[in-house]
Amino acid sequence: MNQLKQIDYIIFLLYFIGVSSYGYWIYKQKQKTKLDTKDFFLAEGSLTWWAIGASLIASNISAEQFIGMSGNGFTFGVAVAAYEWLAAVALIIVAIWFMPIYLKNHIYTMPQFLKTRYNETVSLIMAIFWLFLYVFVNLTSILFLGALAISSLVGADLFHPIVIGLSIFALIITLGGMKVIGYTDVIQVVVLVIGGLVTSYIALTLVSQKFGLGNDVLAGFSAMMGDAEDHFHLIFEKPGPNTPQVEVNKYLTVPGITMYFAGQWIVNLNYWGCNQYITQRALGADLKTARTGILFAAMIKLFMPLIVMLPGIAAYVLYKNGSLQNEMAPGGKLLADNAYSAILSFLPTGLKGLSMAALTAAIVASLAGKANSISTIFTLDIYHKYIKKEATETQLVWTGRVTILVAMLMAIGLTWEDALGVGSEGGFTFIQKYTGYLSPGIFAVFLLGFFWKRTTGAAAVVGILMGFAMAILFNHFAPEWFGHETILYTAFRNAEGVYEIPFLVSMGWAFVFTVLTMVLISLAGPAINPKAFEIDSRMFRLAPSTTAMVAIIFMLLTVLYVRFW
User: Fold this and answer.
1) pTM score of the predicted model
2) Which of the listed residues 55, 157, 243, 438 has the most CB atoms within 10 Å of its CB?
3) pLDDT tens readout for residues 309-361
4) Where are the alpha helices (H) located in 391-527, listed in sequence order?
5) What is the CA radius of gyration of the chain?
6) In angstroms, what CA-CA distances link 383 with 108, 230, 247, 450, 530?
7) Are strands 499-500 and 492-493 parallel, antiparallel or unpaired?
8) Is residue 438 within 8 Å of residue 467, measured between CB atoms?
9) Is residue 1 packed enough to be buried (19+ CB in 10 Å), middle (13-18) or exposed (0-12)?
């Protein structure tokens, strides 16, 4: 049965027309001048700090957060907020230490960084890796989860038409270039925050009503904390021999204190600091603007669990107490990723349209940003270098547009019947897990390239390939090979007696061994590396206003961790 009424569709239509019209206006304004690659891919440095910050959040918060993280909130609780809160710290690190190096060396793409710092081989390998990752994991999973969520909200089997609709909407925005994406993202992030807050408000009201406390949101939150006390701890204990499999699965995804030693930092620093999809927003700006925008995004990040995770915990409490049975378990099978849509089904008429607009905003912003990054890497780092070196600026821009179209068509094909199995693992976990095969090697290459002059091109090539190989080793073979009583104490037997290592811990081990190998290879190479970046401590100095922003973020983060540890 269709859950949306006419007013809901009107609200959604107004949102669609508003965003599309604004994007078209920006595009037509830019058409008055000749569009070149720096303008198309980097917005020609014209994004303001608030546009950069909003665009970072809009591109990051998508279906995997709204749907996948709400699903993880249903299953794990507040522990999954570590991804969001540590992201704020990662953004501070990127703003202070990574961004000055990129901007001083005029870096526009991540493969360009690798070529400048190392060599063409490293750049080409990583360009290909990134293209596969962005198309086959990120773009596909965002499209699949988004279409699934909106189809559930509409209350009809419209999955395939919605896949097409989301793709077309994203193409309208993406084909205008990064400036259109950046400024439409400001609207998108306002819509998704307002819609997300409304959903969280309704979720807490439903909990309050369930416990006979009226419509008191604060009373609903207190009741939720009391009824689901186990869902309000950041740290899970390591499973013992007789731990039920459901608890083992929680630890495998959010492995207690061990994930804070490496895995979470690799995930966040690689994503926010070594990822074309994210850094592209700031690479065209001056340092002060880029830093302020990134720190603005860090502040917003602290509050994102309220929007993307809290509805999942509320759905758990309601389901546990007899509500949402049909919504959470259609056909009798419990699906945690249904949590967000289950809460949305209780929104009053009109607000459902706003929430669908918020969800669509998150999905489309991420699709547009990801497609633009795919286009940037292919056009500038593969097509222009290896296919048509004499291509004009106009030809490169059109190549970028064609690449966007091709990438979106590939994602539609993979999404059509969930060819990659996104739905079987939970969307958020799917993305984190499979991105984790590349993250250790990539982050090791970037980190050593930034701050250790001796790191050689040969070490970088080995590091990229070894990081991938080590991730496979620790995820699939090391648990059984080495077992519980060795240095790999992070392995443990699950309820079926099989040794396992959580994927975040596996990432940590892969990173450690990759760094050690790269250091040894580099020490065996030349003592002087002419491609090393010159580091000047003055690059990392902060303005008083920037220092104040950093201090506020750390104070808020401390309060959150003390409360939920």
Assistant:
1) 0.84
2) 55
3) 899 999 999 998 988 888 888 777 788 878 888 887 787 887 778 777 777 77
4) 393-416, 422-425, 427-435, 439-451, 457-472, 478-482, 503-523
5) 23
6) 16, 52, 48, 27, 27
7) antiparallel
8) yes
9) exposed
